[in-house]
Amino acid sequence: MNSSTITTTALLLATHTLLASNHLAMALSAPPPRAVVIFCHGSGDNGHGAKGYVESVAPPFSVSALEDAGVVFEYPSAVPRSYRLMGGDISSVWYDRIGGMDPRNPEDTASIEPSARQLVELIDEVVERRGVPRERVALGGFSMGGGIAIQAAARTGGRLGAVFAMSSYLCEDSRVWFELLPGASKGGAAAKDGRCRAQDDGETNALMTTPVFMSHGEEDDFVLPSWGEQTARRLREGGADVREFERIPRAGHEMIGEELSRLFDFLRAELLDK
Q: Which of 4, 186, 268, 269 falls 20 to 30 Å from 164 in CA-CA distance?
């Protein structure tokens, strides 16, 4: 290696080090975000795929407008597991299903618990890492991602900024109805104080104090709109603060721009305008 090559290499290394130092300094000096949105993917997808999906169908500049206002999006990934609906093959799903998609099938609660715990721990970690209060953290997702968001919110205490579920539902025998939100199993006649029997400290269930947004494509023939509506109704009966159940015209089992526009309006109102 001649002296010219050595000099060029040294200059490149010095430039790289300087740029890295500048990026680190900017990151350290940047103000903390105003809010964080944890967006959970549907079955068979992952966080990277969900990010691309949202950004590809959202109205132009709508994601960047929220980011410019201080909102940070995080897209976690499920831990791959055996999935009965794929013949037991390993898939990126938040939980397993027993017997099929119909909500009359039993809930596989055992597979839900670790994923719900993953998200509850992520909320705590985001609060610490991002420097935002829990009241500025939204948790939600699409399809199975919305289902696990509801499950996780039912397993944590204190108010969050928002919960959202798009094209999502819970099984009729879900633990949410009979243990975590027991008023839902009695037509809303019980547990109106929001106490969650699954929480040792008796802290208020997040579903009871957090605004919830739900939406569903009117033409969804995979997760039927009636399943989502039934879930929204039972959540309300149990005392959950379900603000919206939006039926999205001309939409199947998918996210479309109109739906994300309504969601983003909701998130802006709950996370930034209060």
A: 186
The letter for the amino acid at 126 is V
**Strand order of the sheet with strand 137-142?**
71-74, 35-40, 137-142, 162-166, 212-217, 242-248
Taking the C-alpha atoms of residue 228 and residue 253, their distance in angstroms, rounded to an integer, is 12
Between CA 206 and CA 211 the distance in angstroms is 9
d(CA 233, CA 187): 10
Q: What is the DSSP letter of 184?
A: G
**216/246 Cα distance (integer angstroms):** 6
| 225 Cβ contact list (under 8 Å, min separation 6) | 216, 217, 218, 247
β-pairing verdict for 90-91 and 81-82: antiparallel
Q: Are 252 and 219 a contacting pair, CB within 8 Å?
A: yes
**What are the percentages of helix, strand and coil residues in the chain, rounded to 5?**
45, 15, 40
- The domain locations on the chain are 1-29, 31-271
| Interatomic CA distance for residues 5 and 162, integer angstroms | 57
Largest CA distance in the chain: 84
Assign residue 11 a region: left if phi > 0, alpha if psi is -120 to 50, beta otherwise?
alpha
H helix or E strand, kind and range, residue 138: strand 137-142
* One-letter identity of residue 175: R
Write down the pLDDT at residue 179: 87
Cβ–Cβ < 8 Å for 110, 116:
no
Q: Quick one: pLDDT band at residue 196, thresholds 50, 70, 90? A: very low
Give the integer Cα–Cα distance in Å for 143 and 241: 20
For residue 22, the model assigns a pLDDT of 46
Contact 140, 146 (CB under 8 A): yes
- The top-level CATH class assigned to 31-271 is alpha beta
